[in-house]
Amino acid sequence: MILALLLAAAVPDFAQIHAIFTARCTGCHSESARQGGLSLETHAGALKTVTPGNSASSTLMARIGGGKPPVMPLGGQPLSPAEIAAIGAWIDGGAPGPAASRSTGEARSWQPTLALRAPALPPGAEAHPLDRLLRVYLGPQGELAETTDALLLRRTYFDLWGLPPTPEQAAAWAADPSPEKHAALIARLLESKQRYAAHWISFWNDLLRNDPGVVYHGDRKSITSWLQNALESNMPYDRFVQALLNPREKNDPEGFLIGVNWRGDINASQKPVMQAAQNTAQVFLGINLKCNSCHDSFINQWKLKDAYGLASFFSDEPLAIYRCDAPVGQMAQAKFLYPELGGVASDAPLEVKRAQAAKLFTMPENGRTPRTLVNRIWRELFGRGLVEPVDDMDAEPWSADILDWLAADFVAHGWDIQHLLTRIMTSRAYRLASDGAAPGAPYRFRGPVPRRLSAEQFADTVSAITGQWRLQIPRGAGKASYARDWEIKSTALGRALGRPIRDQVFTERQTQPTTLQALELVNGSTLASTLERGSRRLLGELDPAPAPLADSGAINSQTVTIDVPVRGRKKLWLLLEDVDSYDPGRVKAGWAEAAFDQGGPLPGPHTAIAFKEQAGRPALEAKLGTTMIVDVPRGATRFTATVGVDASSLSSDINPRVRFFVFGAQPDPAQLYAVEGDPPVAFTPVKKKQLLDRVYRHALGRPPTALERKLAGKLDAEVLEDTLWAIFLSPEFQFIR
Amino acid sequence: MLTRREFLATAAASSALAAAGKIQPTADTLILLWMAGGMAQTETFDPKRYTPFESGMDPNRVLSTFPSIDTAVDNIKISQGLERIARVMDRGSLIRTYQAGDLGHILHSRHQYHWHTGYAPPQSVAAPHIGAWIARTLGPREPDMPAFIDIGQSLEIGAESDALKAFHTAGFLGTEYGPFFITDPRDAAVAVRPPGHITPERFEKRYERYKKLLEAGPAHPAERTGAQQESLRRAVENAHRLLLSPAAQAFDLSRESKETIDTYTAGDPGNRFGLGCLLARRLTEAGARFVEVTTEYIPFRYWDTHENGHQRTIQVKNTIDAPISRLVLDLEERGLLDRTLIVVASEFGRDMMQEGKPGKPVKDQVKIPDRLTDVKHYGMHRHFTEAGSVLLFGGGVKKGFLYGTTSGERPCKVVDKPVRIEDLHATIYHAMGIAPNHGYEVEKRPFYVTRDGKGKPILELFS
Prior knowledge:
The complex is a heterodimer of chains A (737) and B (463).
Chain A: H1 2-8, H2 14-24, H3 43-47, H4 59-65, H5 81-92, H6 98-102, H7 129-138, H8 149-161, H9 167-175, H10 181-191, H11 193-208, H12 224-232, H13 237-245, H14 255-258, H15 272-285, H16 304-311, E1 320-323, E2 326-331, H17 350-362, H18 368-382, H19 400-412, H20 417-425, H21 428-431, E3 451-452, H22 455-466, E4 470-472, E5 480-483, H23 492-496, H24 515-523, H25 525-538, E6 550-551, E7 560-565, E8 571-578, E9 589-596, E10 606-609, E11 617-622, E12 626-631, E13 638-645, E14 658-663, E15 675-676, H26 688-700, H27 706-712, H28 717-728, H29 731-734, E16 735-736
Helix pairs in contact in A: 2-5, 8-10, 8-11, 11-12, 13-17, 15-16, 18-19, 18-20, 22-25, 24-25, 25-28, 26-28
Chain B: H1 4-11, E1 15-16, E2 29-34, E3 68-70, E4 77-79, H2 83-87, E5 92-98, H3 108-117, H4 130-138, E6 148-151, H5 161-167, E7 180-182, H6 188-191, H7 200-216, H8 221-225, H9 227-244, H10 258-265, H11 272-285, E8 290-294, H12 309-333, E9 340-345, E10 349-351, E11 382-384, E12 388-393, E13 401-403, E14 405-406, E15 414-416, H13 421-431, E16 439-442, E17 445-448
Parallel strand pairs in B: 2-8, 2-9, 5-13, 6-7, 6-8
Antiparallel strand pairs in B: 1-16, 3-4, 5-12, 9-12, 10-11, 14-15, 16-17
C-alpha cells in the first residue's frame, strides 16, 4: 500500500522529507534551538529556506549540495545523494506540507464527508442493492464468475463460525436444491450465537486489546465476559460503542478505557487517557492520533491539541498539554475531533464527559463510526477493505457509494452487526470467485482476495477434524472443559500464525507465511502432538484417559486433604506435577501422613514436611514430574494424605505452584485432567475405510482424488498423521477462497 | 511470478526510509549475553570498597560484598569470583556508566523491554527487538541460519510472561524478522530436528508426501500461481531446507566433547547459560547474525537478588565466569573475534540502599534493616538505575579499554561519560554498520533504530 502510494506520487511526501530533517538537521534547526533562525521541524519553518517548485533557487539545496558555504549539516557527514535528490524532488513538486501530501495522486480530489450520504440505487436487474452499486463500479465489462457451491459453503462457515462445515453439513448443502439456500444458511449459522461469538470475538479482542488468559502487571481488566455476551446477544453497535466509552454498570467493559498499563512513570503521550484517545479514534473512527499525541502531526491534519481534546473526555482531572514529553504550559480543552457535532465543558464531571463522548461517537450526524465498522467487516469478508489502510478512513474508498450505502443501511437497521453481515454475505459480490491478483498491482475489486486461515481458525479446524481440543483447566480442583483456541492464552503455534500479543490495538494481523512460522508447523510440538494423538483417535486406537481419583488443584502455600476410596483397586498412581513454579528444581513437597486404612505405612522414602506454620509431619517425599506406584493392601478401603509444599520452599525465588493427582489406573501424561462437557464440534467416529474420505471432506470440502487415495495407501496411524500434516500445510487448506 | 522475497518486500508492514549514511561495519555477528534481573555492578565489574559482613553493621557502609581482583589490564579491577573474565579483560572494553532509563517504580520486564527495543513501553506501535532490527536490516549471514536466535528465556514465567512476550518480537517489522527461540540450550538440537516421535527417514518421506499431494490435488489455479500460496510453499520448503541443512548441526551440542562442555559449564551440567554460550559459539561459526543468550529472567532468580544477595551472587558469577571468558577465547582462537561483537549487559545495576536513581525516590521493593544481623540481608537487594556495567569484546572495539567512571562513595553516581540506551545501541549498531537514524516507516511515520534517530555512537570505543 505504502509502496503503491509512493509510486502514485512522484513527489515525496512531507513525512519522508521530515524524516531526513529529523535525522540530520533538527539537532540544530529545531523549534527550540533555531540556529540561524531556522527550524526544519515544521513545514512552515522549512518553507523559509525553500522556494516551492524551484529547487535550483532554494537556499536549502545550495546548503546541502555544497553550492553555498557553509555546507550543511555543519561539521557532519553530508547528506547522501539519494536524500538530496528526495529533497529536491519534494521542492520541485511544490514542497507540499502534511495536509497536501495526504491527497497526492489519485486521492487528490477526495474529501471525506462526515455525515453519511444516501446514494441513490441505480436501476438494474440485480436484486441485491450492493450488486447494483457494484455494477456501476465495474462498468460495462464481462460478468465476474461466482465461486463453486462447495467453496461458497466453506467460505461462509469460516466467516460466521470460524470452522469448516462437517461432511454431514456439506452433504445437506449439496443436496439442497433451493435457490435461497445461501441466505437460509447464513440465517441458520447466525442463530448459533455461541459459535458466531466464538469466531468474531478474536476480531474484537484484537481491536479492543483484550486477551483471555493473560495477566499483565499494573492495571488491566478483562472485558471477555462482557464481549462474549455482547456478541452472543448481537448488541446493537451504537450501544456497544457507548458501553466501551462510558462504562457505568458493574458488568460494563471498563477494561477498554483502562487499557494496558505498565508499572512506573509513563511518557505523557502514553498516559492512560491519551491511550484512550488514540484507541477510540483508531478503532471506532479510523483516525490515527498517535503522532499528534506528542506533537502536531506531520502526516495528517491532526494537532497536538486535538489528541488532548479527545483525551479530556476520559480524564477526571484537567490535563496539562505536553509536547514531546515537555509541558507547554497550557491546559487542554475538551474538544471532539469533529467539533461541529458538539462538545462538553472541560470541567464537567467525568461521567458527563464520558456520556457526551459516547453520544458524539454514535450520533446520527457522525457517519464516521458506522463507516469505519462497515469497512473493517468488509475487509474481514473480502480480504481487503473498501478503504485501505483500514485505519485511515480519510483515504478514498474504491466505491464511496457502496461504503455509504452499507453504512446507512446498517444504521437504519438499528446498528445491527448481524444484519450488516447478512446484507453483505447475501450479495452476489460475496459469492464471486476469489481473485488472487498479484499484490502491488493497483487494486481493483474483482471478488474476494484469498484469505489465510487465522491462528484460531487453523487450531479449531485441526481440533474439529482430529477431536483433539485444548482444555480450559481450572486453577482449583475440578474438571477441565474443552475450549476453542481463543479462550486460552496463545501458544507458540498461535503466535507464529499471527495471533497478536495484544498490548497494542491490532487492526490487521500479519498473515504472510514466513520461515519461522513454517518451522513451527513443521517441527513445533503443539501441532505434532495434536496430530499424533488425533490420528490415533481417528483410528480408534487412542484409549480413553482415566480420570483422576483425586486432584488437589494448584497448590502454593495451602494444604489439601486427599481422601479416596480404593476398594477393589490393586495399585495407586501418585503424581506430583509442576504448574508454574519459578524454580521447580528446588520445590520440596510431599504426601504427609499418607496411609491406607488397612496395612502398614507406605513404602518409600519418608521425610518430614513442615507445612506453613505447622510442625513437621512424616511424609512420602515426591519429586516434581514423577509418579509413584503403590500397592493397595488387601482389605484397604480408603487412602488418605495431606498434600502441600514444605515451608522451606515458600520463598520468592522458588514461588512453588504444584498439583497432586491420585489415579487408580495408569495415567495418560498427555491428559491428566477429568474433562466434562461436550467438545465444540462433536467427534464422529467412522470406519477406517471411510476415514480418508471424511478427513478430505472436512478439511477441504471435497473427497480425495484417486491419486490422493493411492498416495495415502494403507492407512495406519503414522500414514494418517503424515497425511493430515500434509493437508493442514497445503495452501488449499490454509486459504479461504 | 513474484519470488517469496519480492512478495515479502511488498507485503511487509513497514517500508525502509530514505537510506541513511553508509557506515563500514566492524562486526558481522552480534552476541548479546544478557544478565537478566539486574546485575549488581559493584559486585561484578565496578567494585567499590569491600566491607566484609559483621553482625550489627550499618548497611549504609556496605558498597561491595566482595574484594576486588586484578585483571589483565592495569587500570581495571573487577570483583572476586570473575577471575577468568579478569584474564581476558585485555580483549575488550568495559563501560561503567550505563544509565538505565528513568521509568519510575521499577519493573524488570519493562526495563528489559526498554533495553532490548530502545523504547520504553507503552508505545503506540509495537517496538522491534534489537535482534529483529538487525535481522531486518542486515538479513541472515548464511541462508540456512536464522538471523535472530534467542537462547535461554522461557516465555511462561508467571505474572510477567506477557510483558516478556511483548518485546520478544519483531514488532511492526513483521514476524519474518522475529526470534527463533531455543528455550533450553540442552534441547537446541530438538528445535532443528523432526518432532520427537518422527524418525529422520519418516520426516523426509512426510515432506515427499506433501509435495506429491500438492501435485496430485485438484487445486484451483490460484493455488498454483497465487503469490501468497506460493510463499506458503516456499516457507515450508525453507523450513525443511533449514532442518536438513549442515547448518542445523550447529545446534547440536552433543557434537562437542565432554571436556569442552565442562569448560563452558564449569562442571555444572545444569549451567544452561554456559551451554548457551557454547551454542552461541557454534552458531557464530555456522554464520549466525544475532544471538542472544540469557541467564534467564524469572522473578527473584539469578541476578534478581532480593535477598541473600552475597551468597546468590557467588553462584551467578560462577555461572557466567567460565562461559563468557571461554567464548571470547574460543572465538579468538578461531579468528572470529575480530568480526564478532560480544556485549554483556543487564537492564540496570543494583545497590544495597538506593532504589531507582539518587535524588528521585521511587517505591522501595525490599526492606533493609537498620542493622545487619542476618547474612541474608547482606547484598545488593535494591534496583539501581543510575549506573551499571556493560562489557564489549571483539567486533572492532578497543582492547583493554575502560570507559566512564562512577563515584567511590554511595550513591556511586556516574562521574563522567554517562551512556544512555540510545548511545549504547548506536554504538552497537555502528559496529554492525547501521546508522543510528536508520529506520522504517510504519503507519506513515518514521521509526528509528535509536529513539528519534538521535543515538550517538561512542566512537572512542572503537580502535
